[in-house]
Q: What sequence folds into this?
């Protein structure tokens, strides 16, 4: 018997669909506050020292956090090759903008404090701001586009042909999703700053975070209403073949009904939006009442709820096509082979706990507030 | 299929990969050298070694971050620019990339922050372990990316599935223990170690020339020359192993590197010099070294190495065979997989050469309608442009032997001549700093340009692998990457030079105090000149 047949294809597909969610959520939970702090940087830090405090609150850890993003790319490639191929080539210029912004960010962290000049540092502060705000916005815009359907189809060779344009991505609903994503991550960054810093930086973070948190709640609610009344859903026509070959051309898909029909089919998934709303509101309250640790926890729950609500609502769709519904990618037609999914699952089961363990250890070593005195006193070793 | 899209995509990939590979080799080697220095510090408790760790660590950090930043592009560029490739081989190629993230990137990236920020927060031994984890993490990442790349050169452990129209993994073990990948891994990391050794040697030599930071420089040379010698020997030996493997799996690449147009009687001669003439399939002004090529390529005296012309003939046969598989595949497609047993059998019998039929896609929409002239043109396409391979290889190999010589010399002077280096040798070491980068970039060109016209050797032609993009898209991103990368390069070089000029700036007083005391101890009343014992 072949080892990889220990788990049925449909089961391992669902597991990898779940792991895709875990990776996106892991990325948003960890790198999310780095992006958020980047976007907050010009507002929470008025002086160079204040900005350095904000930067050093994530100085030793942003690099590890960023790996969630890289791993996201690698894991989508390994487990969902058609998704990797269609989305990144389709969103080509948007991906370039994200990459350019994310390339600036590590360099800005590392190089900013290597010279004294104010204009040098101001330039890198801009890079950190762009490197935080732009990806946070575009990730949301991408999710918004996915919910509306993306204009692509496969030709007979299974080459994906994208029919949209860069500016075509900036549809109103997608922009709303972008705002939710940006404000949610800014709130998360503010919650982190409230834990790791003190004085004016923490105070400004709390003030800004409670506003962005409210914007995120309102935006999330508006997006929900929009989905209910303004956007059609998708469904598979005829028999669903969860063990079918990974070939999108074999599936019959039609547009119609609402995405939110999922909540009548699977009422338990209501937990996700409840977590999203509850988490965001509690984060706002927590920021106002200075409950730092629990606020960070609430913010994490909010992100967990908001991101998983998108996935659970769309299941089994992962990338629907607006111009050729049959080309839509689903959990059942866009995965890797059973062997690859199995091998990757074994590797993940071994390494993910290790990663979480040593990451937790690093955070423990670095625990404690970053103060202006720390930063000023250790100019050689900190950013 | 628009040829200009293919060419532009290749240009962008080559540009971003070659640029990324400016930073990777130094990261691979310097992470290890820094960990070795810190280990010496922990063992001897001498402050100078901590200062060395911090100083080379600072330079490591400036370089490391650009490796990370430009690596982001690599992780996503396959999907952006090579979407058909990604869809066609993602089942195999994606796995090592994801494992690279899980096993290597998390390790190095999580601990690299602690390396820089943790000096006062961790006990000595723990901090040293952190340095080693960073080094191990970077080296693991080389392992997995080269397993991915090795599969493109020598696609084992996979088969084409007509139901899903793509390659699928049949044996993870074969993919992982692909002999091409293993040889490439050791060759590439050794090249990284040589790069870092030459860098440390050159910068230290510059300090000695200037009479600055002499203690730091001498000890650094001791480490760099010993480590560099081992690495330089390994890089050449494993390069030879790669050559042998190419002889087994990529005969066309080997023949092109040698500009060997005709099959020669065994053991074939090595062409030390020559001007390849692609149009006439000739090499002008060739200078031969008898027997050498046969020995490198086949490890024997009696196995002939096939020449380019014979390989083209072979390719033509494989194209015709692949067309039978292609025809069966079209039946699969039309019937959505419900095909009679005989079609299935036909397909399986010929599917090995399916990729060769795809070579015709450049000329006709349906390869089955190709004319004889087109088939012969497609067979000719299997020959890469010879001169960059011929010369790239010779520059790389020549430099490789140069590194061995340099390292032997400095190792000898450091170990047996009391660290006395003639001025000329020090100047040479400074001048040599850029050369390992030249060798590394040449190595990339030989390996990847030599893989053409395939993205996956014999399986998927490059011309078919690209995304459906417009020339405008590509020109925009090529211009964008070029601008961004140029600016970053200038910034990085500026900082690197600034911090090299500045020299060690941490733990200065403590190190100086210890050093003065150490010198007095070494003199021990006699008037012998102080020296740094390399093995301390």
A:
């Amino acid at each position: 018997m072949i080892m990889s047949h220990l788990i049925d294809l449909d089961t391992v597909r669902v597991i990898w669909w779940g792991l895709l969610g875990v990776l996106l959520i892991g990325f948003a939970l960890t790198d999310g506050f780095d992006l958020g702090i980047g976007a907050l940087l010009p507002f929470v830090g008025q002086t160079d020292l204040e900005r350095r405090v904000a930067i050093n609150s994530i100085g030793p850890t942003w690099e590890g956090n960023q790996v969630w993003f890289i791993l996201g790319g690698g894991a989508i490639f390994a487990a969902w090759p058609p998704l990797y191929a269609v989305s990144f080539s389709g969103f080509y210029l948007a991906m370039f903008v994200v990459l350019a912004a994310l390339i600036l960010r590590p360099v800005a962290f590392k190089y900013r404090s290597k010279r004294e000049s104010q204009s040098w540092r101001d330039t890198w502060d801009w890079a950190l701001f762009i490197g935080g705000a732009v990806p946070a916005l575009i990730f949301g815009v991408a999710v918004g586009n996915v919910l509306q359907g993306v204009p692509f189809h496969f030709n007979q060779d299974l080459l994906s042909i994208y029919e949209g344009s860069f500016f075509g991505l900036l549809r109103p609903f997608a922009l709303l999703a972008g705002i939710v994503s940006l404000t949610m991550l800014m709130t998360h960054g503010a919650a982190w700053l409230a834990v790791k810093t003190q004085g004016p930086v923490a105070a400004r973070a709390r003030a800004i975070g409670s506003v962005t948190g409210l914007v995120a709640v309102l935006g999330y609610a508006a997006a929900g209403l929009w989905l209910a009344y303004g956007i059609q859903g998708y469904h598979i026509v005829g028999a669903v073949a969860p063990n079918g070959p990974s070939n999108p051309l074999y599936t019959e898909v039609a547009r119609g009904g609402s995405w939110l029909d999922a909540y009548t089919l699977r009422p338990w998934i209501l937990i996700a939006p409840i977590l999203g709303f509850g988490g965001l509101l509690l984060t706002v309250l927590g920021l106002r009442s200075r409950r730092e640790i629990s606020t960070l926890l609430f913010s994490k729950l909010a992100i967990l709820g908001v991101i998983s609500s998108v996935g659970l609502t769309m299941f089994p769709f992962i990338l629907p096509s607006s111009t050729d519904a049959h080309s839509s990618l689903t959990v059942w037609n866009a995965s890797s082979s059973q062997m690859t999914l199995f091998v990757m699952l074994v590797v993940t089961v071994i390494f993910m706990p290790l990663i979480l363990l040593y990451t937790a250890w690093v955070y423990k070593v670095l625990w404690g507030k970053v103060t202006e005195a720390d930063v000023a006193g250790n100019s050689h070793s900190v950013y | 299929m628009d040829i200009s899209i293919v060419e532009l995509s290749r240009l962008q990939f080559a540009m971003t990969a070659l640029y990324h590979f400016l930073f990777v080799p130094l990261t691979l080697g310097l992470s290890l050298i820094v960990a070795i220095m810190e280990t010496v510090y922990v063992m001897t408790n001498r402050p100078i070694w901590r200062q060395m760790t911090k100083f080379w660590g600072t330079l490591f950090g400036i370089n490391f971050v650009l490796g990370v930043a430009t690596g982001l592009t690599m992780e996503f560029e396959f999907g952006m620019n090579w979407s058909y490739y990604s869809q066609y081989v993602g089942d195999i190629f994606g796995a090592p990339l994801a494992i690279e993230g899980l096993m290597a990137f998390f390790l190095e990236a999580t601990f690299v922050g602690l390396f820089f920020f943790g000096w006062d927060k961790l006990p000595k031994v723990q901090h040293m372990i952190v340095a080693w984890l960073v080094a191990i993490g970077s080296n693991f990442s080389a392992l997995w990316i080269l397993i991915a790349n090795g599969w493109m050169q020598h696609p084992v452990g996979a088969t084409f599935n007509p139901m899903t129209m793509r390659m699928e993994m049949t044996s993870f073990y074969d993919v992982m223990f692909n002999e091409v990948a293993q040889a490439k891994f050791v060759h590439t990391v050794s090249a990284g170690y040589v790069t870092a050794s030459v860098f440390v040697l050159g910068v230290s030599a510059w300090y000695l020339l200037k009479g600055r930071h002499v203690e730091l420089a001498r000890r650094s040379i001791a480490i760099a020359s010993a480590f560099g010698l081992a690495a330089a020997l390994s890089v050449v030996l494993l390069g030879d192993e790669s050559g042998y493997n190419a002889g087994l799996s990529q005969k066309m690449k080997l023949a092109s590197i040698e500009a060997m147009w005709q099959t020669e009687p065994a053991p074939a001669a090595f062409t030390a010099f020559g001007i390849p003439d692609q149009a006439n399939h000739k090499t002008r002004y060739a200078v031969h070294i008898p027997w050498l090529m046969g020995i490198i390529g086949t490890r024997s005296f009696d196995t002939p190495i096939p020449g380019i012309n014979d390989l083209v003939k072979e390719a033509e046969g494989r194209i015709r065979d692949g067309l039978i598989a292609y025809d069966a595949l079209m039946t699969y497609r039309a019937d959505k997989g419900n095909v009679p047993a005989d079609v299935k059998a036909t397909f399986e019998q010929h599917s090995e050469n399916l990729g060769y039929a795809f070579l015709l896609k450049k000329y006709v929409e349906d390869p089955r309608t190709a004319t004889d002239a087109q088939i012969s043109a497609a067979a000719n396409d299997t020959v890469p442009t010879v001169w960059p391979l011929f010369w790239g290889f010779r520059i790389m190999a020549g430099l490789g032997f140069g590194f061995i010589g340099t390292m032997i010399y400095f190792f000898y002077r450091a170990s047996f001549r009391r660290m006395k280096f003639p001025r000329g040798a020090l100047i040479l070491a400074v001048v040599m700093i850029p050369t390992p980068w030249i060798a590394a970039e040449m190595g990339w060109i030989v390996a990847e340009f030599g893989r053409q016209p395939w993205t996956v050797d014999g399986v998927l032609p490059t011309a078919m692998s690209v995304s459906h993009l417009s020339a405008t898209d590509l020109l925009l991103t090529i211009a964008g990457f070029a601008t961004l990368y140029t600016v970053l390069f200038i910034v990085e070089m500026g900082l690197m030079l600034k911090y090299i000029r500045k020299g060690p700036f941490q733990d200065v007083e403590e190190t100086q105090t210890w050093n003065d005391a150490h010198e007095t101890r070494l003199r021990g009343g006699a008037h012998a000149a102080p020296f740094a014992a390399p093995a301390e």
